[in-house]
């Protein structure tokens, strides 16, 4: 994923949130996430009027996760399983382990397009 991280702005949305149930993080498609990569002292659920229900990766924290207000505007990262053997990603997507990732240069709120 090193080549893909060079394309990221300081923060990028990933498809995780706890909008359905507090501190239970699920993917945008509703499936449960078993993998975590939280930054130190995260998720911290700092109080704000908008809450911190959406997940971002932060460049200053080596792309570790941070919970953030969904109203913030960020780039977003998409992923899809790679094709079966041979492992290939579509043009514009980057391979990391068994998935293909694409960074969209449009910036949106988390709720806007994920």
UniProtKB/TrEMBL annotation:
Domain of life per record: Eukaryota
C-type lectin domain: residues covered: 12-79
Coiled coil stretches, renumbered: none
Pfam families: Lectin_C (PF00059)
The entry's keywords: Disulfide bond, Receptor
Protein name: Macrophage mannose receptor 1
Gene that this polypeptide is encoded by: Mrc1_0
């Amino acid at each position: 994923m090193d080549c893909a991280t060079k394309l990221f702005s300081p923060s990028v949305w990933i498809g995780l949130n706890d909008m359905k149930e507090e501190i239970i993080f699920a993917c945008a498609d509703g499936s449960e996430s078993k993998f975590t990569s939280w930054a130190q002292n995260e998720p911290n659920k700092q109080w704000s009027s908008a809450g911190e229900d959406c997940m971002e990766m932060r460049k200053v924290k080596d792309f570790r996760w941070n919970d953030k207000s969904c109203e913030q505007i960020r780039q977003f990262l998409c992923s899809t399983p790679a094709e079966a053997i041979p492992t290939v990603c579509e043009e514009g997507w980057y391979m990391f382990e068994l998935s293909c990732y694409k960074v969209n240069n449009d910036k949106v709120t988390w709720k806007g397009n994920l």
